Amino acid sequence: MPIIINGNDVAREIRYEIKAKVGALQEQRGIIPGLAVILVGKDPASRIYVRRKTEDCEEVGFFSREFKLPENTEEHRLLSIIDELNRDGRIHGILVQLPLPQHINANAIIDAINPRKDVDGFHPYNMGRLFTGDPFHQACTPYGIIELMDRHGIKIEGKNVVIVGRSNIVGKPLAMMLLTRHATVTVCHTRTKNLSEVTRRAEILVAAAGSVEMIKGEMVRDGAVVIDVGINRREDGTLVGDVAFSEVVDKTSYITPVPGGVGPMTRAMLLTNTYNAATRLSSAQ
Ligand code: NDP
Question: Which of 193, 231, 265, 269 to mutate to test the pocket of ligand 1 (most atoms within 8 A of CB)?
């Protein structure tokens, strides 16, 4: 029988653990982890993500600051807020919600964040540390996928892993994390030939393409672990993943649903990174 991984339960467990550690950190060292979240524009999905991240902070006892800036905010204004937050001793983590409006250079914004406060793990410094096998802050979604597998006792070492998607925020950092954990990793994209043949070899298959139910039953090997990162909104407003769940589920040993699989883990790992940033920054001072 396949095990349907409940990301909400694992994320709740992580929040519970962090809340306990925050209490101890405050008592023993007088430190309260602080997260600043910056939203530019009115993208409805981004607004929901930002609200939930602030609620998570409240739940675990973090200090948080939320910046909601208009769509026409100029790049230099955003850079000056980041500069202020880089110097704000109450803030240990800075997150700029992506995507940013077209007129703002997202790379320049990420580069401006102090890498020690880059709790999204997108700064080239953090990407480089991951690449060299000595990670500092790790990108939240792939980090959450690793944590989900670890907490379910899914062995990574020596496994054939196929990732569909090569973005900087999911596919590429996940590939590096899995390599560090001694998996054999194949990364696929839109130019990959005979995709089904490649995915059928996967003992662990990760779908991160942003394409509605593109992973069909015949693309999955019997007994595979299937991780669905996709969050796609149908016209009727319902959420659906990159995996055709109903035709794939019975072939798997473990599978994540959408919603309620990887999604909640991304937020939980943001809290983990912020907690770690607070302990490390305070030790460095
Ligand atoms: P991007 O659009 O940045 O990247 C998608 C990747 O998938 C690209 O590398 C693209 O290839 C590849 N791809 C797309 N279609 C196909 C296809 N038919 N066959 C093979 N490869 C394909 O997306 P993101 O990485 O940002 O996000 C991927 C999905 O994950 C989205 O649904 C997003 O909403 C979701 N997501 C979920 C998160 C969570 O917390 N659960 C967090 C982040 C993202 P190419 O490079 O050739 O274009």
Answer: 231
Residue 30 C-alpha to ligand 1 middle, in angstroms?
A: 41
**Which bin fits 205, alpha (ψ -120 to 50), beta or left (φ > 0)?**
beta
pTM above 0.90, yes or no: yes
For each of the domains in the chain, give its residue range(s) and CATH number, in order of start: 29-114 (3.40.50.10860), 140-263 (3.40.50.720)
Q: What is the pLDDT along the chain (285 residues), one digit of tens a residue?
A: 999 999 999 999 999 999 999 999 999 999 999 999 999 999 998 999 999 999 999 999 999 999 999 999 999 999 999 999 999 999 999 999 999 999 999 999 999 999 999 999 999 999 999 999 999 999 999 999 999 999 999 999 999 999 999 999 999 999 999 999 999 999 999 999 999 999 999 999 999 999 999 999 999 999 999 999 999 999 998 999 999 999 999 999 999 999 999 999 999 999 999 999 999 987 765
Going from the Cα of 210 to the center of ligand 1, the distance in angstroms, rounded, reads 4
The CA 28 to ligand 1 mean position distance, Å, reads 43
Q: Whose CA is nearest to atom 5 of ligand 1?
A: 209
* Pocket lining: 211 vs ligand 1, CB cutoff 6 Å: yes
Strands 34-40 and 93-96: parallel
Q: Is the distance from CB of 91 to CB of 36 less than 8 angstroms?
A: yes
Task: State the closest ligand 1 atom to the C-alpha of 241, by its place in the atom list counted from 1.
Answer: 32
Residue 160, φ and ψ in degrees, nearest 5 = -85, 115
CA distance 22 to 64: 14
Q: Does the CB atom of residue 168 touch ligand 1 within 6 A? A: no
Round to whole Å and give the CA distance between 101 and 74. 10
